[in-house]
Amino acid sequence: MDANPWWRAAAAGTDPTLWVRSHRLLLDRARHDLGYRASILDDVATNALSDLLVVVTGPRRIGKSVALLDTVTALCGRGDVDPRQILHVPCDGMRDRDLRRVLTLGRELTRSVDSPQSVRRVWLLDEITGIAGWTSVLKAARDGTDFGDDTVVVSG
Questions:
Q1: How far apart are alpha carbons 9 and 62 in whole angstroms?
Q2: Cβ-contact 27, 73 below 8 angstroms
Q3: Vertex 141, ends 150 and 107: CA angle to 5°?
Q4: Among 15, 93, 111, 124, which residue's CB has the most CB atoms within a 10 Å radius?
Q5: pLDDT tens-digit profile of 14-55?
Q6: CB 86 within 8 A of CB 6
Q7: Is the Cβ–Cβ distance between 122 and 86 less than 8 Å?
């Protein structure tokens, strides 16, 4: 997935944080950087992975997507997290059935990290509130699949 360039780096054995240098949103921030970094997801970035569910809401263009990407960067730099455990999904233009499919395919695409045992994922679902019925999809997945054991951050 192009939305998860750290997977390729992890599979190749290279630095999984190098994607930051070429990501459009982060390059835009770098041009006007005042040094501020949102701390809203610091617990996700630094604490042990759990079944935490976080909803980040706010007006457009205040930095929700950038906060998600900063969290990915921090997670990719941790020794106890395989970058292939991190799934960033831009949800713009999706429908509820697309979201269901992403949750299934995302776990399959990251199955290689489950050896010798299943591990938690970190799902960062950006702009999910644009999907009608997203809460029902997440509830069903949290109640009935391994997604319920994962860290999930949604924004919109």
A1: 29
A2: no
A3: 55
A4: 124
A5: 999 988 888 888 777 778 878 888 899 999 999 999 999 999
A6: yes
A7: yes
3-state secondary structure of 94: coil
Q: Which of 18, 14, 12, 11 is nearest to 112 (CA)?
A: 11
C-alpha distances in Å from residue 9, one per residue of 5, 64, 84, 125: 7, 25, 9, 21
d(CA 71, CA 33): 17
Structure tokens at 79: 């020794």
Hey, is 81 helix, strand or coil?
A: coil
The token pair at 90 is 């831009």
Assess contact for 149 and 51: CB atoms under 8 A: yes
The terminus-to-terminus CA distance of the chain in angstroms comes to 21
pTM: 0.91
Residues 38, 87: Cα–Cα separation, whole Å = 20
